Amino acid sequence: MPAAARLRPRRRLPFRPAPRTPTPPTPLDGAARHRHIKALFAGPREHLTEWYDFYAYTAFALYFAPAFFPSHDPVVQQLNAATLFAAGFIVRPLGGWLFGHIADRHGRRLSLMVSVGMMCVGSLIIALTPTYASIGLAAPALLALARVIEGLSLGGEYGASATYLTEIADAEHRGFYSSFQYVTLIGGQLCAILVLLLLQNVFLTHQQLVDWGWRIPFVIGALLAVVTAVMRRDMPETDSYKAASKTQPRTSSLRGLLKYPREVAIVVGLTAGGTAAFYTFTTYMQTFVRQTAGFSDIVTTYVIAASLIFALILQPLYGALSDRIGRKPLLVFFGVAGALLTVPILYTLAQTRSPFIAFLLICGAWVFTAGYTSINAVVKAELFPTNIRATGVAVPYAVTVSIFGGTAPAIALWFKQQGHEQWFYYYLAGVIFLSLLVYATMRDTRRESAMHRHE
User: Fold this and answer.
1) Residue 310: band (very low, low, confident or very high) from pLDDT cuts 50, 70, 90
2) What is the reported pLDDT for 196?
3) Cα gap 315→306, rounded to integer Å
4) Which residue, 17, 247, 261, 390, has most beta carbons within 10 Å?
5) Cα distance between residue 251 and residue 20, in whole Å
6) Are 175 and 323 in contact (CB under 8 A)?
């Protein structure tokens, strides 16, 4: 080969990441390593508060729905509550853009502080709103306003949190550390369930919960949000953001996002099936186990709480596994198993009368669903360069979640109201199959990451 040809630099396709980071990361000294570890676990711990606030709604919907939606049919009450749950997701794309822009232009920490403040406001509105019997239609209207505020908050929380965890972690353990985002996401719902268990079994009667006790978790959530906002003031900014802010001009986040249509399409495709499965086996499961399988309120709470503990344990295990074998094998595993096993699992769960069998079936669903939940945050973050990463993660994810995730309980209950509940099983399996097509054709972001790029 001529010498000139050997010296000619290789051309790369635009916006395609190099297979590997060009230079190895600088080893951390003891003090720096301590700061990184503290940040890695402080972020998720505080992230849990926002998810607790958001999921307290679903955990206590069985009790507060009659106060806001008078009806003789409990399915209609739950459908109305699920519709407002979905409303919180409709505005998540706007929140994703707003807080993604803040995170990319003014820092990850500021975005996280503002978002948790908004979550505090939403929880307080729910806790203090009078019932339908007192103020009529203003009651569900205020409830809807609270869910919109919480939806905006959470739309920004996901992108900023996923970006923060991925950037603060070292390259060899990025999958493991970023999996703690879903540890806290599931942990937030688990905390809401545990508060429900305490109120059900220790402090209040069923009637007290229906009358006023359902307000307690939202007061707790608002207080926790204030504490979290204070704690986030001491979170260190990531080195990647500092490097990008010094070298890159500030442009419109959405205009910058348009430069990465393929990456945006991948985020939408890989999220659709995973988010539908996640919200089915978390938020909708409590209603499904109670109304379809026919278990009592307390038994339902125990079954859901135990399954969430199992799901929580799986997240870091799968995240660590992705650091060894790559992200793509886990996503493909979720797609194949989810498409094949979702329908038989839900059919069997609807017919079982054994709480233990119900627990095993939900855990079986989590065995494959964790293939998505544990690593989806790191996969999305690894697709985009630093200057657009938070927006690139948050906006397409929020749009997809609002379509396929937040609507899953409402779609399932609508099928149930129409007398065709089983149709939802096939709908869910079909959405997972569509995502499988993306998993099978996308690159493995562990091996081809954009984390080192700041343009």
Assistant:
1) very high
2) 85
3) 15
4) 390
5) 27
6) yes
Buried b (16+ CB within 10 A) or exposed e, 178-206: bbbbbbbbbbbbbbbbbbbbebbeeebee
Query: Chain centroid to CA 392: how far?
Result: 15
Cite the DSSP H helix spans in 258-354: 261-279, 285-291, 297-325, 328-351
**Which 3-state string (H, E, C) describes 46-87?**
HHHHHHHHHHHHHHCHHHHHHHHCCCCCHHHHHHHHHHHHHH
The whole-angstrom separation of Cα 398 and Cα 380 is: 12
Rounded to whole angstroms, how far apart are CA atoms 222 and 349? 35
Structure tokens at 27: 């080893």
- The pLDDT tens digits for 377-416 are 888 888 888 777 777 777 888 888 888 887 888 888 888 8
- The CA-atom distances, in angstroms, between 30 and each of 34, 35, 36, 177 are 6, 9, 10, 19
Q: How far out from the chain centre does Cα 371 lie?
A: 14
What single DSSP character describes residue 14? T
Model confidence pTM above 0.85: no
Q: Which amino acid is at 365?
A: A
Q: Which two tokens stand for residue 105?
A: 């232009």
CA distance 140 to 67: 9
Determine the residue type at 71: S
Instruction: Please count the helices (runs of H) and the strands (runs of E) in the chain.
Output: 23, 0
**Tokens 């009651």 found at:** 139
Core vs surface per residue 251-276: b (16+ CB within 10 A) or e: eebeebbeebeebbebbbbbbbbbbb
User: Residue 136's pLDDT band (boundaries 50, 70, 90)?
Assistant: confident
Q: Is 107 helix (H, G, I), strand (E, B) or coil?
A: coil
Could you tell me the CA-to-CA distances from 208 to 164, 195, 196, 215, 244 in Å, in that order? 41, 15, 13, 11, 54
Nearest to 181 by CA among 275, 51, 282: 51
- Cα separation, 304 vs 309, in Å, equals 9
**Closest listed residue to residue 47, CA positions, set 191, 144, 174, 146:** 191
CB-based burial, 313-337: b 16+ in 10 Å, e otherwise: ebbbebbebbbeebbbebbebbbbb
